[in-house]
């Protein structure tokens, strides 16, 4: 049997897990509020999801089924490593199917398939403070949150419109949670922002280096900030997925050769594969098969 | 001028340990009145300004302010949220160094628009239009609206700072050496602009300056500080033309005649 | 009207020169006089007798050590020598006008706006006030090309005419004149004499200092000899 799993379930010691759970409970109680916690050293570098991993380690149980995605994909290094890590230290079952998972740890995407009650989405967050780029002082940003002084957030959007003619922020697009706290949804594309609103699943956010945890409980109001005359809009794609033909999903651009040939394919690999399995085809799927 | 003071400063003292920042300062400021606080470096004028503008809590004394709803409130009994709201709506603060009062990395338009957005304005077009209007009033060309203040000259930055403060129609504005560090021709333009805006908008102002010419041009009334104390106060032209205290006489006689 | 517009009772003033070992320079003492509405009184006496100081005390520009300066302001009697700064500003706005010897220029403000300001301060429409200032400039033969320029670069005589227009533009019941004709030519002196006569007819109480004898005899109803108020040598 596996030594690591016997040492302690899910890598962290029980005291640490209790500490993190308390932070999580507080975060759920105050939706969108950044709760400080004493982030631990993890066996991976900062920026590889240490915050998300600590949150997952604190909530995972032996019966959970874990899915890990990185930019929507189950098969990238980060996703594969973290999945392997938990398979090793918690001996939990892992999956790539969104529907089968009880816990989904994610970097920069929300799965296309609608999440349901009982599922938990754990986000890896690099910089939790949405006001950071305009106000470098932590003392001041905390005060601004406390006093609900969020004019500055619109200054950023104003700058976008002034510079680009439209709100050019496409990821980490700020939201207001339950009419109170302005929150950074982590660098997910703004395409995913509407999925956070009134989600049936619990959403937890862990920032390891910055030592913050925040949460959106199920069925919580999440509104993307905007202007009356420049309302919030999600990205639109000209073509469906080149492989599965899906529309109204988030697509990644893939360069096919050095002569500028490219295709747009589903960022959510599980969604794409499930559709292919169900017989959906895109314009390049034959070519893909040929390769 | 109204009969009720807008701001009342009562026995305000600030001690830094055993050192005196300012001591037992009292005065009333009425709507539309401009008060100059003069004195040399270290005389306590900036400490006093900070104590009055809630940027620094005084050791003793109280400062009361007549709110827009006509209730008189003790500034240091208000919640911090109320105080900060007051500061960005009904008050303005013009720093000597514009970089302290501006966001140097966002455009001029956003600098002016920030206060509007802070009080809930959510219409980009209106915010931008108001910002452009204010840039015009402080003599900054409309085509600079998307430029960052880093690309502005010292005088322009100072004017931008003034626009940023006045956009919410404050009734009281604090200025800390507003013309400090500017060359004389730029100073003159700025002073004239401030003078015009203050009288057009009926603003009350407290101007800290060591420049007696600035005090004469802008203020109705002045107080002279030395070693943290107010040593002389009164009508600006009277204090300057008929000074009584030895220190004030020294100050006045030290002005270079051009 | 027989009541005095302004009454000066037993006023005295001494300068203490702290920078010169605190020596006291008595300026005037026991100043007593009253001026009626419609009257023009002239302060007489040699240079240094304290004429200008008396005028400045009456305008609130100098403090008064002792005595009272009573005047009627918006229907109430006020002692200017003890009035708060705010009150003095109000008095200057509504009751006492002043033509100083020198114009204190403000950068970038045009001559028209300088002259119109006392009216706009009282709430007069900007264009109406400028029109009135322009009329006065025309009367005073100030070349029209100067009207929209800031007076800083004007000659002494030109500046003085701007100053006179600024002082005469309002209908203040009391008008103080500190050598308004000093740098004017004969033609413009005559205009000023005319303006003063009009003010008298309108019931304004005037107190002035005129070194020009011709003007003085034309406008003065009475000379107040300032030498009788000579400051008693520090008792």
TrEMBL record, chain A:
Organism expressing this protein natively: Ahrensia marina
Domain of life: Bacteria
Protein name: Alpha-D-ribose 1-methylphosphonate 5-phosphate C-P lyase
EC category name: lyase
A single GO molecular function term of this UniProt record: metal ion binding
GO biological process: organic phosphonate catabolic process
Family in the record: Belongs to the PhnJ family.
Enzyme Commission numbers on file: 4.7.1.1
Keywords: 4Fe-4S, Iron, Iron-sulfur, Lyase, Metal-binding, S-adenosyl-L-methionine
Function: Catalyzes the breakage of the C-P bond in alpha-D-ribose 1-methylphosphonate 5-phosphate (PRPn) forming alpha-D-ribose.
InterPro entries in UniProt: PhnJ (IPR010306)
Catalytic activity: alpha-D-ribose 1-methylphosphonate 5-phosphate + AH2 + S-adenosyl-L-methionine = alpha-D-ribose 1,2-cyclic phosphate 5-phosphate + methane + 5'-deoxyadenosine + L-methionine + A + H(+)
Automatic annotation (TrEMBL), chain B:
Keyword line: ATP-binding, Lyase, Nucleotide-binding
SMART domains: AAA
The keyword ATP-binding appears for this protein: yes
GO BP: organic phosphonate catabolic process
Name of one Pfam family that matches: ABC_tran
Record domain ABC transporter: where: 7-252
Keyword Nucleotide-binding: yes
GO molecular function, a single term: lyase activity
Family per similarity comment: Belongs to the ABC transporter superfamily.
NCBIfam families membership: CP_lyasePhnK
Protein's name according to its UniProt entry: Phosphonate C-P lyase system protein PhnK
Lineage, top ranks: Bacteria, Pseudomonadati, Pseudomonadota, Alphaproteobacteria, Hyphomicrobiales
């Amino acid at each position: 049997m596996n030594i690591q799993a016997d040492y302690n379930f899910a890598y962290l010691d029980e005291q640490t897990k209790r500490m993190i759970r308390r932070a999580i409970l507080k975060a759920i109680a105050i939706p969108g509020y950044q709760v400080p916690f004493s982030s631990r050293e993890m066996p991976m570098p900062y920026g590889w999801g240490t915050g998300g991993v600590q949150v997952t380690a604190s909530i995972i149980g032996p019966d959970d089924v874990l899915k890990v995605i990185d930019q929507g994909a189950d098969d990238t290094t980060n996703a594969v490593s973290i999945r392997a890590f938990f398979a090793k230290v918690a001996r939990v079952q892992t999956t790539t199917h969104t529907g089968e998972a009880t816990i989904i740890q994610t970097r920069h995407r929300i799965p296309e398939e609608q999440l349901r009650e009982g599922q938990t989405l754990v986000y890896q967050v690099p910089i939790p403070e949405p006001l950071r780029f305009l106000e470098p002082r932590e003392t001041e940003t905390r005060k601004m949150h406390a006093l609900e002084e969020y004019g500055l957030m619109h200054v950023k959007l104003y700058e976008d419109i002034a510079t680009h003619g439209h709100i050019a922020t496409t990821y980490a697009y700020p939201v207001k949670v339950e009419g109170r706290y302005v929150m950074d949804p982590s660098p997910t594309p703004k395409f995913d922002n509407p999925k956070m609103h009134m989600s049936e699943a619990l959403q937890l956010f862990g920032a390891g280096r910055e030592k913050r945890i925040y949460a959106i409980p199920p069925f919580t109001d999440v509104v993307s900030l905007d202007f009356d005359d420049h309302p919030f809009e999600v990205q639109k794609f000209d073509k469906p997925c080149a492989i599965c033909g899906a529309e109204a999903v988030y697509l990644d651009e893939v360069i096919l050769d050095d002569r500028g040939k490219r295709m747009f394919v589903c960022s959510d690999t599980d969604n794409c594969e499930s559709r292919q399995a169900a017989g959906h085809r895109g314009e390049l799927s034959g070519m893909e098969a040929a390769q | 001028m109204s009969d009720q003071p807008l701001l009342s400063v009562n026995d305000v003292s600030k001690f830094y340990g055993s050192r005196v920042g300012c001591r037992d300062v009292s005065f009333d400021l009425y709507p539309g009145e401009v008060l100059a606080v003069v004195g040399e470096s270290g005389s306590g004028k900036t400490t006093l300004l900070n104590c009055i503008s809630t940027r620094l809590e005084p050791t003793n004394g109280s400062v009361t302010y007549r709110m827009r709803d006509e209730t008189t409130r003790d500034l240091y009994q208000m919640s911090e949220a109320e105080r900060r709201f007051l500061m960005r709506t009904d008050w303005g603060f013009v720093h000597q160094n514009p970089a302290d009062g501006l966001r140097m990395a966002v455009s001029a338009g956003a600098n002016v628009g920030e206060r509007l957005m802070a009080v809930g304005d959510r219409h980009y077009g209106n915010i931008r239009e108001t910002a452009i209007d204010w840039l015009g009033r402080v003599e900054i060309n409309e085509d600079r609206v998307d430029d960052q203040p880093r690309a502005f000259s010292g005088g322009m930055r100072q004017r931008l700072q003034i626009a940023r403060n006045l956009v919410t129609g404050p009734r009281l504005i604090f200025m800390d050496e507003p013309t400090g560090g500017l060359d004389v021709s730029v100073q003159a333009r700025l002073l004239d602009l401030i003078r015009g805006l203050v009288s057009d908008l009926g603003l009350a102002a407290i101007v800290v300056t060591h420049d007696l010419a600035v005090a004469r041009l802008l203020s109705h009334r002045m107080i002279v500080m030395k070693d943290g104390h107010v040593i002389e106060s009164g009508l600006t032209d009277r204090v300057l033309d008929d000074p009584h205290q030895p220190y004030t006489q020294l100050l006045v006689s030290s002005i270079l005649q051009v | 009207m027989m009541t005095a517009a302004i009454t000066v009772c037993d006023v005295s003033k001494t300068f203490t020169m702290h920078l010169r070992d605190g020596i006291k320079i008595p300026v005037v003492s026991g100043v007593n006089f009253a001026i009626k509405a419609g009257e023009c009184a002239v302060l007489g006496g040699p240079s240094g007798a304290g004429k200008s100081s008396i005028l400045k005390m009456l305008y609130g520009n100098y403090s008064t050590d002792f005595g009272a300066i009573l005047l009627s302001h918006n229907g109430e009697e006020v002692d200017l020598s003890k009035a708060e700064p705010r009150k003095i500003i109000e008095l200057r706005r509504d009751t006492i006008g002043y033509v100083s010897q020198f114009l204190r220029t403000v950068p970038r403000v045009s001559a028209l706006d300088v002259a119109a300001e006392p009216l706009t301060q009282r709430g007069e429409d900007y264009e109406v006030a400028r029109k009135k200032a322009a009329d006065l400039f025309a009367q005073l033969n100030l070349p029209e090309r100067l009207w929209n320029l800031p007076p800083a670069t004007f000659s002494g005589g030109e500046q003085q005419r701007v100053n006179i227009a600024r002082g005469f533009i309002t209908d203040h019941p009391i008008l103080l004149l500190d050598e308004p004709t000093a740098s004017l030519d004969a033609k413009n002196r005559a205009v000023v004499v005319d303006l003063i006569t009009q003010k008298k007819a309108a019931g304004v109480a005037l107190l002035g200092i005129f070194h020009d004898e011709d003007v003085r005899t034309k406008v003065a109803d009475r000379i107040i000899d300032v030498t009788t108020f000579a400051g008693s040598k520090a008792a």
